[in-house]
Design brief:
Mean pLDDT: 77
Oligomer: single chain
Number of helices: 13
Shape: globular
Number of strands: 0
Helix content: over 70%
Distance between the termini: 30 Å
């Protein structure tokens, strides 16, 4: 449902917005990924978090949340509890981000494109990025997904680097390749159809409503699959590391959006 929702959101953007936005945000996304990984390793030392947990949290914050953690985990030979720690920290930040990002955006008077860029670079899991963007506006949701897809494309090279460093690249790199969002082609196709007038504004509005409905269903499924008791048992250090890293990256990406004058 999430993939279908992302494809449908392509109808809300013109192909020009997609191409220009994708090129403009690529450098920003690369910087976000590199900074997040470095800060994750730094927090490992400061808070005394196990090194593998720090790398997993850094990868999850940098690229695509729990998906990145599940792909990178086998490369590091991470134990189940370490993977659970990392996913728990990402879950905690995602919850706070979904509640606070729209409020901050309205307080700062951010435009749709600016907020979508911030949400796409500062929030982790695709479902939360999409939901947060749509809470702010349809265009913000489309831009947020575009930026997030650019981030997700970096999962494969990151997995290759970590896999080579850990001497166990095979299966997990294949998993990373499978996780790359090839359905972005559908997103681009609908953007092109909207740009040339095959999809009218009225039809795009209906498709946008359907995308929002599907996102609600996805979030409901995520909620049903979340065990709050397991989250409570993770301990404070990994959770603190994830929240600090997420909040820091959120602040840095917000500053970058302002400096680059993305409106």
């Amino acid at each position: 449902m999430l993939r279908v929702a992302i494809v449908l959101l392509g109808s809300l953007l013109s192909i020009t917005q997609v191409v220009v936005g994708g090129v403009r945000t690529l450098v920003l996304v690369v910087l976000v990924v590199a900074t997040s990984m470095c800060l994750g390793l730094l927090l490992v030392r400061v808070l005394g978090v196990p090194r593998r947990v720090g790398i997993l949290v850094g990868a999850g914050t940098a690229i695509c949340g729990s998906t990145a953690i599940l792909v990178i985990g086998p490369l590091l030979k991470a134990r189940d509890e370490e993977t659970a720690y990392a996913i728990g920290t990402i879950f905690g930040f995602n919850l706070l981000a979904m509640l606070t990002y729209p409020l901050i955006g309205h307080l700062l008077g951010m435009g749709q494109v600016a907020f979508g860029t911030w949400a796409g670079t500062g929030i982790n899991d695709t479902s939360v990025v999409l939901a947060t963007g749509l809470f702010y506006g349809s265009q913000a949701g489309g831009v947020a997904v575009l930026v997030k897809l650019v981030r997700t494309l970096l999962l494969l090279p990151l997995a290759v680097v970590i896999g080579l460093a850990s001497a166990g690249a095979g299966p997990s790199v294949a998993a990373a390749r499978a996780a790359v969002p090839w359905f972005i082609l559908g997103f681009l196709a609908l953007s092109l159809l909207h740009s040339v007038g095959v999809i009218t504004d009225a039809e795009a509005s209906v498709l946008g409503w359907l995308a929002r409905f599907l996102v609600v269903m996805v979030l409901a499924g995520v909620g049903l699959g979340t065990d709050l008791r397991a989250l409570a048992g993770l301990g404070w250090r990994p959770l603190a590391a994830g929240l600090i890293l997420g909040a820091t990256m959120g602040g840095l990406t917000l500053a970058a959006v302002e400096v680059l004058r993305i409106a």
